Amino acid sequence: MSRPRSIIILIIWFMWAAGKDLESLARFSTTSDYYIFSSQGLSVLFFLVAGTIFLLNAASAWYLFRPEPVGYKVLLATLAASAAYSIASVLLVLSDLSGAREAYEIGREVRGLPVREADLNAIFTPKAIGIGLGLSLLVFVAIGALVVRNKRYFAGPEEFATEA
To answer: What percent of the chain has pLDDT over 90?
Structure first.
């Protein structure tokens, strides 16, 4: 079965997302998200949510290679969970902006990356964080639109082949 370009884009997106999630879980001690959650005493929640989203992204990639009707719902659930995680992370950041800034700074130092004061001043403002969240949610909506556009793909190979 030949896959449309939009399905290839979805495969790339969900495989990339699963890879980033796995990296975040494997290298948790150097990630800003972990520091943000742990500074609020929510380390366990970080692993629970990040692990769940990793599994959802991996399942989404699976269903893009092996389409089944449930795959459509899995992809949409994955995007909703990812958006909710982004919103929750931003709310944690906004509740302790200076702590989040410090966590970000520590995470960069641990990885041997440069820390520029001007960059930190630009990034850690409520407006900049809101813009970042808005852009992230916009990407999730765009990916969701591709999923909805390709709903018939998840009916299975026989159904998709007759309608394509």
So the answer is: 62
Contact between residue 47 and residue 72 where contact means Cβ atoms under 8 Å apart: no
Specify whether the CB–CB gap between 36 and 98 falls below 8 A.
no
Q: What is the rounded distance in angstroms from the CA atom of residue 77 to the CA atom of residue 60?
A: 9
Helix (H) or strand (E) holding 27: none
Among the listed residues 75, 86, 77, 88, the one whose alpha carbon sits nearest the alpha carbon of residue 11:
75
For 51, counting Cβ atoms within 10 Å of its Cβ (0-12 exposed, 13-18 middle, 19+ buried), the class is: middle
Q: Residue 14: name the closest of 85, 86, 87, 63 by CA.
A: 63
d(CA 137, CA 86): 8
3-class secondary structure per residue, 121-152: HHHCCHHHHHHHHHHHHHHHHHHHHHHHHCHH
Under 8 Å between Cβ of 33 and 90: no
End-to-end CA separation in angstroms for the chain? 10
Token pair of 38 as six digits:
């742990």
Question: To the nearest whole percent, how much of the chain has pLDDT over 70?
Answer: 94
Asked whether the beta carbons of 153 and 162 are under 8 A apart, the reply is no
Question: Does the pLDDT at position 163 exceed 50?
Answer: no
Whole-number average pLDDT of the chain: 89
Mean pLDDT of the region 51-80: 97
